[in-house]
Amino acid sequence: MFADAGVRYLVIGGHAVSLHARPRTTKDLDLWLDAAPENIGRACAALLRFGVPDEIVANLRTARPDIGRDDLLASKRAVGRPQDLRDVRAIERAAGMEPQKRPRARRKP
């Protein structure tokens, strides 16, 4: 859908972990969109053609920067959920990295 519309995007999150380490299941698909106005316009048009409700498409006005392995690791460490910390270990192993001291998983309040 996005590729056909010429949208510049990256797949991030759990699917990025699969690329850098090992396949893992996830409940969603995290995307990064190039924030250039013409790119956001193409993304909005593609989403509307796909059937995404107007009110959701109307909220698409910001984008997140690209995420490489180091930034992905930093982000997952900062969040600290058990799955994120497992992802960190998997990425480190896959990259042959020396594991860093790991924070404990955050507990729900």
Describe the structure.
It is a single chain. The protein has 109 residues and is mainly alpha-helical. The protein has one domain (2-95). It contains six helices and two strands. The protein has helices at 2-5, 14-20, 37-50, 54-58, 69-79, 82-95, and strands spanning 9-12, 30-33. Strands 1-2 form a two-stranded antiparallel sheet. The longest helix is centred in the middle third of the chain and has 14 residues, at 37-50.
Give me the strand/helix succession.
HEHEHHHH
Q: For the CA atoms, what is the radius of gyration?
A: 16 Å
Principal-axes shape call = elongated
Q: Give the end-to-end Cα distance, rounded to a whole number of Å.
A: 40 Å
What's the tally of helices?
A: 6
Beta-strand content bin = 5-15%
Oligomer: single chain
Low-confidence stretches: none
Mean of the pLDDT scores?
A: 84
Helix content: 40-55%
Largest sheet, strands/sense/barrel: 2 strands, antiparallel
Strand order of the largest sheet: 1-2
Structural class: mainly alpha
